[in-house]
Fold these 2 entries.
Entry 1:
Amino acid sequence: MSRITRPVSTPCAALLAAAFLFLSHGRLRSIGADSSPQTGAGVKVSEFRLKDATGRLRSLAEFKERKALVLVFIGTECPVANSYAESLAGLARRYEARNVQFLGINANRDESLKAVAAHAESFHLGFPVLKDNRQVLADRVGARVTPEAFVLDAERVVRYRGRIDDAYASRTKKRPEARARDLEDALEAVLAGKRVANPVTVALGCLIPRPQKAVVSGRVTYHRDVAPILQQRCQSCHRPGQVAPFSLLTYREARNWAAEIKQAVSGRLMPPWLAEPGHGEFQDVRRLSDEELRTVVQWVDAGAPEGNPKQAPAAKTWTDEWFLGKPDLVLTVPEPYEVAGSGPDDFRVFVLPTGLTEDKQVVAIDFRPGNPRVVHHVVSFVDPTGRGRTLDAADPGPGYSSGPGGIKVPGATLQGIWAPGNLPRYLPQGVGRPLTKNGDLLIQVHYHKTGRVEADQTKVALYFAREPVQRVASTMIVGPFNIDIPPDAARHEQRASLTLPVEMEVLNIMPHMHLLGKEMKVTATLPDGKQEDLVWIRDWDYRWQDSYRYKEPLRLPAGTKIAITAYYDNTSSNPRNPSNPPRRVRFGEQTTDEMGFAIMEVIAGRPGSAPSAQ
Ligand code: HEC
């Protein structure tokens, strides 16, 4: 029986994997002969007959009148391929007028014709997608990843193979805008009868699973060793309808993504968790232990052996109930908000009037995205000023737009933060956060785009104090307001500090920067000179804005100095740099501005002390 795995076989993937191996294990694995770029250009494509998504047989001959053909290998679950759906559909329409035919090719064996049809429809591809289940065409041209494009001239000779453009600087780093449009350049050259200047580029994306010899047993097997890790660490996001682009619930799914899984875990990109271990003791840590990481990597290296299903852990069940039980109040965004398929990330603020008739103390808050595929994180605020309503009224559609920074409402106070996989927790006994009856709850939702238009209507659940509250939790922000980053600075440093006027307990900490942010460290120097790290983010990624909750509230005496050091990369080699060429960047709320905060939830005073000043 043949089995399918994703071998580490693209040149870039192999290099990346080797780099990760080198970094994490200090040794370099031999990459193998097939890692050298295969040209593919120059290959003549002969007649084929493949089913399209509607089940109809299509052949190359059918398009013989066309001056050029573009074959684009795509998958239904690959986030990189999906992020190109809109631009591919646009290119196909534009070049149709010039007698060029675009054909999507799906060579992923585990993706059914039905799934391919549903995908083509919901992403409005507009061009036929052919199912190359036996990978005849994929093998003929040597396609390795999705998305990868092949331009065939009138003789059906491959004149270009590779990426669509250079928007992806690496698998997980996307530039705000592409600088080189390789596919279009190649098409223009072919249509003009000219030589293609760059006939081969490296496509970044998801490996097309190729058949491999079955590996059933091994020292590390899926059912016994790997499934429990995926259950605990991955499935909260990697299951149908959640934020991750594909599921990791079954052996086949895990096996098909094995090479990507190895890269993602070795590089500590997955599970997302930016806080460096040993710098702050946090609750609900998502990071894999070194042991878990080793197990997953060994499993992939051994060829992803399945093992004995009898040793599998019981499937994890997921419930739709609120984690803390029935909330006292659930607020819902009044109407669905439509999220565009592509373009920069979208930060939208929604105004939720509470309808309360008396003041309350909130002791826990939870969030439920209406459409988990697009909701990357949610931050909630209390707005006693009514300014949110004004902004909402002035902006068409539900809510209003903001940058990744503030919500444009001075005087609003932060209430809670949610990211996929976060569990809600109660504040310590006797502690609450006030929600006055005339205040609105504002939620800022960070949407990321899936390639197709999606709708979302997020809900917030509030739990109120039943007992009198003695102490109030509030938000403390440390960070520089004088940010001024010259263009081309590779490691621009900004510092700020404050000294606590009273004793405080710190419950959690949320580092916040925008696209140029690279690194942030927050330290506390106690009055006796002892220094403690509160958090260290060594490799900032604005897409994972988490609030890290301490295992035990950190008690810091009056006179403690909290200092923050943040670093920014304003060079053009930072793929996320929103300005090209780089420009001077100062403090501000827009995506093109910067911030550098540590936002902490704190309680002033000590347990049992008199009610703190409000
Ligand atoms: C908190 C939610 C979350 C958890 C937990 C999580 N993932 Fe992901 N994962 C995502 C999201 C969201 C993406 C898509 C990222 C993107 O679009 O750039 C992703 C992408 C990936 C990718 C593809 C990366 C790429 O190269 O494009 C792999 C592989 C992956 N996850 C593996 C894992 C594994 C293995 C685990 C557990 C050990 C895990 N993830 C845990 C949310 C999560």
Entry 2:
Amino acid sequence: MNKLSVIITGILVTIAFSWAGLVLTSHVQLGALEHHVDELSGDSFPPPRAGIARRGKKTYQELGCVACHTQQVRRPRDEETWRLPYGYAGDIERGWGERQSVARDYIRDEVVLLGTRRVGPDLMTVGGREDTREWHHRHLYDPRINTPGSTMPSYSFLYKTRAVDDDPSPRALDLPEGFGAPAGYEVLPTPRADALVQYLLSLRMDYELPEVPAENE
Ligand code: HEC
């Protein structure tokens, strides 16, 4: 064999190994994974997301929320040694979920938004922690209303301010003094804001899967 064919064979073998390692093994491990059907109720888990929440997910992607937020509850402490898995912080102790998230939790998502950086809290179960539209709208309009000193940017461009005519809208945000619109005006969510909030409310892990015990602590 001359040098060129050695190099080409080497490159092909490297590509084949990477493909086998990354694509084939993942496919063998996870390719047959399906949603879990509860035998008694016939419901399937994770539950499908409503259409409006799926639209909200697009907004979440467009606005880059994933740059600061993860969606993965990581493994809890080892029961015997009480040690955290290497490099992981205690997500369950922080109240970010009652169990770790597993591959099946993401099975209905075409795009999985695991994230890599946590400037803000993990959002995998945020729809269970903060479960009202009002809370999320206020927080998106100005995060400092709910969390004084928050460094999360304001998404007030998802809201429109309009003059209150004779009948104020029941959908207007209830904003505290100092944050609200000037007298005679009200702040209303746009359809994008509504969809984003529905997506945030759909982020829950309040079901069990056979491969992971409900409570890991
Ligand atoms: C620059 C980083 C950054 C970006 C970008 C960001 N956030 Fe945040 N987020 C934070 C920080 C920091 C907190 C914690 C303080 C707070 O509650 O405001 C937070 C908190 C939150 C919370 C409350 C979580 C809890 O456990 O109470 C939600 C919900 C949230 N963010 C949603 C979003 C959404 C939706 C977007 C995109 C539209 C977004 N964030 C973009 C930094 C960010």
